[in-house]
Amino acid sequence: MGEIDIETVQEIIRRDPFARNLGIEFELIEEGHAVSRMELKEEHLNFMGMVHGGAIFALADATFGAAANSFGTMAMAIHVSIDYLAPVGDTPYLEADVRETARAGRGGHYVMRVQNATGDLVAVCHGWAYHTSRSLDEDEGTVGAKDQGN
Predict the structure, then answer these.
(1) Which of 35, 51, 114, 130 could form a disulfide with 88 if both were Cys (CB 3.0 to 4.6 A apart)?
(2) Strand 73-84 to strand 33-39: parallel, antiparallel, or no bridges (unpaired)?
(3) Is the dihedral of CA 10, 45, 89, 81 positive or negative?
(4) Element (DSSP H or E) covering residue 9
């Protein structure tokens, strides 16, 4: 198993169909760090007309996946918690910034910060990822379906 370069890693991560479906665009992907943006649309709102907490969480989680997999080997979330700190407000987009803060064996700890267009912090997440030794481009495109039984 050879190492893959960061450009290949970025290309693989940017093809994420779930993130694309939500309108999440990865602005930066480097080892242990990722930044993404999600333009807010009507489909991100709940029945009260506010940005759905699930949309906020999905942005943080997709960016967490990018940061955790940025080393070129497959990593999976094993725990994530979220604290909603403030309403999103009238903003055209949300941005997530995720950084690895510690590594303990195969476990990596990440902090996810979600803010609105004016820089107000709306949510913070903490998560652990399990880092495998499998190359990110190994069996590309089939791992999720194989692991999920789809």
Answers:
(1) 51
(2) unpaired
(3) negative
(4) helix 6-14
Q: How would you classify the pairing of strands 93-104 and 107-116? A: antiparallel
Ordered domains of the chain (ranges, CATH): 6-134 (3.10.129.10)
φ/ψ of 47, rounded to 5, equals -70, -10
Among 28, 22, 100, 31, residue whose Cα is nearest residue 57? 22
Contact partners, residue 82, CB within 8 Å, separation at least 6: 53, 56, 57, 60, 112, 123, 124, 125
The Cα 63–Cα 57 span in angstroms is: 10
DSSP character at residue 32 = T
Nearest-angstrom CA–CA distance, 9 and 31: 10
Supply the angle between the helices 53-69 and 6-14 in degrees, to the nearest 10. Answer: 160
> Per residue in 6-35, pLDDT tens?
999 999 999 999 999 999 999 999 999 999
State which amino acid sits at residue 142. T
> Half-sphere exposure of 134 toward its Cβ, with a 13 Å CA cutoff?
11
For 53-74, what is each residue's pLDDT tens digit?
999 999 999 999 999 999 999 9
